[in-house]
Predict the structure.
Amino acid sequence: MQVIYGDQDNTKVKRDSGVGLGNFDGLHIGHMTLINTLINESKKLGIDSVVYTFSKHPENILRKKLNTPIITTTKKKIELLQNTGLDYLYFDDFDEAFSRMKPEDFIKDILFNKLKVKLAVTGFDYRFGYKGQGDVRLLKGAGEEYGFGVIVVPPVKIDEHVISSTSIRQSVTKGNIEKANRFLGRHFSISGTVTKGRRVGNTIGFPTANISYYDKIILPHTGVYITSTLVENKIYNSVTSIG
Ligand SMILES: Cc1cc2nc3c(=O)[nH]c(=O)nc-3n(C[C@H](O)[C@H](O)[C@H](O)COP(=O)(O)O)c2cc1C
Ligand SMILES: Nc1ncnc2c1ncn2[C@@H]1O[C@H](COP(=O)(O)OP(=O)(O)O)[C@@H](O)[C@H]1O
């Protein structure tokens, strides 16, 4: 898998491509269903598969005060998609100027000219372009005009609940990690750097580590959690105190 950063790299995708569209924060079961569909259908067509996403969550750019804490950092997204068979992970730079792009221009300039789209894969509720004016209907119409196919993935649910990054954020914030894990299809995790603390644990026979974390990530509700900790390729049984 090749990672492309839109702000640094103006190289175009070399071959015709299948493009998966969305923010994909969390890379939950719904997202992975979409991405697997993208990879499989692109293979069938003999084209490259590309996930086109943003390095910063649009909500955090457009509604600065309404901070959306993120579930997966860029680094984590790369890690999770690394061995899926995806050809390109494309992080574009979302800023105010970009947000004003009309859906029709996004299709023409980015999907068609830049990514040489032959297939677009989105979820049922995908919206794009200025103020979210574009939807799957518009995308399908443009597909007929420009000659690309569109696959719309129906809502992936667990127990009748549509899986979404918003519901995962709510579960994590409430401390309902079991539910978040079910929706994510893996264990919720946080990465960070070990920093020096008061070393109290050591004096009672438990080594402790203070983790400093990226401040935009979502944290579970204050409390004590049973965890596993991965340090330098070794996994330890652990207990983590949040707060
Ligand atoms: C060209 C373009 C312009 C966009 N402009 C806006 C905007 O003005 N307001 C907004 O809330 N989101 C805007 N978005 C973000 C989309 O509504 C949407 O969040 C994003 O494409 C990811 O889709 P998803 O939320 O279904 O994953 C824009 C997206 C694109 C591709
Ligand atoms: N449960 C789901 N089932 C099918 N597609 C989904 C699901 N959740 C999100 N998608 C699709 O994945 C892409 C990224 O969605 P995004 O808005 O980032 O996620 P979410 O809706 O979880 O916040 C969009 O095309 C969206 O329609």
About this structure: The chain has a mean pLDDT of 92. The pocket of flavin mononucleotide (ligand 1) is lined by residues 22-23, 58, 62, 99, 101, 106, 126-132 (CB under 6 Å). The chain is about 35% helix and 25% strand.
